[in-house]
Amino acid sequence: MAAKYQLITELYRRTGMAVVKNPQAWQGFLSSACHNYKCRFDEQLLIYAQRPDATAVAEIGTWNRLFKRWVNKDSKGIAVFDPKGRRNTLKYYFDVSDTHEGYYGSRAVPIWQMDKRYEQPVMERLADRFGGTEGGDLATFLIQT
């Protein structure tokens, strides 16, 4: 386990350095992080490094108990640091794409998306707070600020 922890620590360090040095990598990170906004920053960075396309991640117990979904056989977990565990331990998240519905009572997985009707009011509020923009869409605005 210590070797795996060291590998994930090095992945975290390298990904962090790459993200802060490259605007395209930063944009890719933000795009990935917005799907898993309830995760800590270090978790978001490791999710981006291992599965940038992940849209909703949770531990296997959460998928089983809360959503009545089951992780597919041979799915590979996303390793993140576990601050509640013993020193230098990892826990694993699985993306919704790694799961399937159970037989009884599976819940829909809520995937956050910006409703188009709120884009303009959000842009105006952000422009009031952080300054104007030359672009006409929310994504351009957020990249410029």
Describe this protein's structure.
- It is a single chain.
- The protein is of the alpha+beta class.
- The chain has helices spanning 2-21, 23-33, 41-50, 60-65, 119-130, 138-144; strands spanning 57-58, 69-71, 78-81, 90-95, 99-101.
- Helices cover 46% and strands 12% of the residues.
- The protein is flat.
- The protein starts with a helix and ends with a helix.
- The mean pLDDT is 88.
Side-by-side strand order of the widest sheet: 1-4-3
What is the C-alpha radius of gyration, as a whole number of Å?
18 Å
Report the end-to-end length measured between terminal Cα atoms: 41 Å
Largest sheet: 3 strands, antiparallel
- The number of E-state strands comes to 5
* Helical content class: 40-55%
What's the total helix number?
6
Task: Find the structural class using helix and strand composition.
Answer: alpha+beta
Succession of helices and strands: HHHEHEEEEHH
How much of the polypeptide forms β-strand, as a percent range?
5-15%
Instruction: Report low-confidence residues grouped into runs of 5 or more.
Output: none
Question: What characteristics describe this protein?
Answer:
145 residues, alpha+beta, two-stranded antiparallel sheet, 6 helices, 5 strands
Task: Give a short summary of the structure.
This protein has helices at 2-21, 23-33, 41-50, 60-65, 119-130, 138-144; strands spanning 57-58, 69-71, 78-81, 90-95, 99-101.
Topology:
Layout: H1 2-21, H2 23-33, H3 41-50, E1 57-58, H4 60-65, E2 69-71, E3 78-81, E4 90-95, E5 99-101, H5 119-130, H6 138-144
Helix pairs in contact: 1-2, 1-3, 2-3
